[in-house]
Specification:
The longest helix has 24 residues, at 269-292. The chain has two domains: 4-120 and 286-306, D-amino Acid Aminotransferase, Chain A, domain 1 (2-Layer Sandwich); 125-267, D-amino Acid Aminotransferase, subunit A, domain 2 (D-amino Acid Aminotransferase, Chain A, domain 2), CATH 3.20.10. The protein is built from nine helices and 15 strands. The radius of gyration is 20 Å and the shape is globular. A hairpin with a 5-residue loop joins strand 10 (187-191) and strand 11 (197-199). The chain is an alpha+beta fold. The strands form two sheets. Strands 7, 8, 9, 10, 11, 12, 13, 14 and 15 form a nine-stranded mixed β-sheet that branches. The chain has a six-stranded antiparallel β-sheet with strand order 2-1-6-5-3-4. Bound molecules: N-(5'-phosphopyridoxyl)-D-alanine. N-(5'-phosphopyridoxyl)-D-alanine is lined by residues 35, 156, 182, 185-187, 207, 209-212, 245-248.
Length: 307
């Protein structure tokens, strides 16, 4: 079965999914995106990502081209027709197609929407979680509105490539005051000697990760102390544990920063416990939501698509 994508109202084979060359996402990175993890066939933290998408669009004055309910139906349908059990859904909305001009098109043109799904091998992610990852650090070279999830990711791409060249999986970026902002594609956390979870507060300096918010809530539920404040690279090197969070990596322990071991150089027990809680909670929610989703509807939607 070919992989199916969604482009501007049409379900199309992934290989034929395309937008116009004058799409403003392509020419100006004038677009926002969202990524949902899929665990046991269910989109994780669904509402959180949908709400953040609406916020990103609002901040950039881009009109959401489909209603929340239509979007919800499309997202669930893509997961079901592509039979994604574990993986991710990528959604991108740009300001639309118009003759190249920096100024927003006036009158506005319809926003472009593209949604794709992917099911990367789960084993690699599990191995990273089990063994932990190495990260590097570099200056944060991004713009001042990192709270908006825009596709303008060149500094993140360069940071990830720098990490990749050094055999590391992530790059934590450092602000002019010497404090860590976040990873190139994930939020940054440490657990200090007192067992306190520390992560940077959510303002314009970082993307307020949906996974970050869930982990803060889980930590609270488990009676762990959390502090939302900036921390430095030195503090991270003194930490007992460190980890990253994102929709696709969930929670992954960091065992090395710039070649130096964090804690005993192995994934921390608290990090692993929180990862376990996160996945277990997501699976539980998935069980509850699939119990509500009528099987006949999923079957009918798949059949209609094949016809
Ligand atoms: N990245 N910070 C940055 C810069 C990110 O790109 C991401 C997510 C996060 C974590 O956010 P969340 O928990 O909502 O996924 C933090 C996605 C997964 C990506 O770009 O693929």
């Amino acid at each position: 079965m070919p992989r199916i994508a969604y482009v501007n109202g049409q379900y199309v084979p992934h290989a034929q999914a395309a937008v116009h060359v004058e799409d403003r996402g392509y020419q100006f990175a004038d677009a926002v995106y969202e990524v949902w993890g899929v665990i046991d066939g269910a989109l994780t933290d669904f509402d959180g990502h949908l709400t953040r998408l609406a916020r990103s669009l609002r901040e950039l004055e881009i009109r959401q081209p489909v209603s929340d309910s239509a979007l919800t139906a499309v997202l669930h349908r893509l997961v079901s027709v592509n039979r994604i059990h574990h993986g991710l859904v990528y959604l991108q909305i740009s300001r639309g197609v118009a003759r190249r001009d920096h100024v927003y098109p006036d009158p506005a043109v319809p926003a472009s929407i593209v949604i794709t799904v992917r099911s990367p091998p789960a084993a690699a992610a599990e191995a990273r979680a089990r063994h932990g990852i190495s990260i590097i650090t570099r200056p944060d070279e991004r713009w001042a509105r990192r709270d908006i999830k825009t596709v303008s990711l060149l500094p993140n791409v360069i940071a990830k490539q720098a990490a990749h060249r050094k055999g590391a999986a992530e790059c934590w970026m450092i602000d002019p005051n010497g404090m860590i902002t976040e990873g190139a594609a994930a939020n940054a956390w440490i657990i200090n000697a007192d067992g306190v979870l520390v992560t940077r507060p959510a303002n314009n300096d970082i993307l307020n990760g949906i996974t970050r918010r869930i982990i803060l809530a889980l930590a609270d539920r488990e009676g762990l102390k959390t502090e939302e404040r900036p921390f430095s690279r030195d503090e991270a090197l003194q930490a007992r544990e460190a980890f990253i969070t994102s929709a696709t990596s969930y929670l992954t322990p960091v065992v090395q920063i710039d070649g130096q071991a964090v804690g005993n150089g192995h994934p921390g027990s608290l990090s692993l416990r929180l990862r376990h809680s996160y996945v277990a909670t997501a699976k539980e929610r998935s069980r509850r939501s699939s119990a509500r989703r009528p099987v006949w509807l999923v079957a009918r939607q798949s059949k209609r698509l094949q016809n």
